[in-house]
Specification:
35% helix, 3 strands, alpha+beta, 4 helices, elongated, 100 residues
Length: 100
């Protein structure tokens, strides 16, 4: 059996934040902030949340299912929705039972 070396490419721009996320959060990514909500383009009865990920560029922002975000970060997600109680936010809050 030979000893393998970990791959390291000095040209990759790995930030300290990325190292911290990898070292301390092997179950997922850290949400930096919620940016927007929308109806799913493929399933109009579902909602999606635009997420900015900590340690990543704006290009890496992604739309994630609102029900999954509600399961993973219920307090922060409810605070975001309740801080924006008009229009589509009020509709989502009612449908998800955040407000009645």
């Amino acid at each position: 059996c030979t000893r393998l070396k970990f791959y390291h490419d000095a040209s990759l721009k790995v930030t300290e934040t990325m190292r911290h996320i990898v070292a301390n959060n092997d179950t997922g990514y850290e949400i930096e902030k919620f940016l927007d909500i929308r109806r799913s383009p493929t399933h109009s009865e579902d909602w999606e949340v635009l997420i900015a990920w900590a340690g990543f560029e704006d290009l890496d922002n992604s739309w994630e299912p609102a029900n999954i975000i509600m399961e993973d970060t219920p307090v922060a997600f409810k605070q975001y929705i309740l801080a924006n109680r008009t229009g589509k936010f009020a509709e989502l809050a009612t449908e998800m039972g955040i407000i009645s």
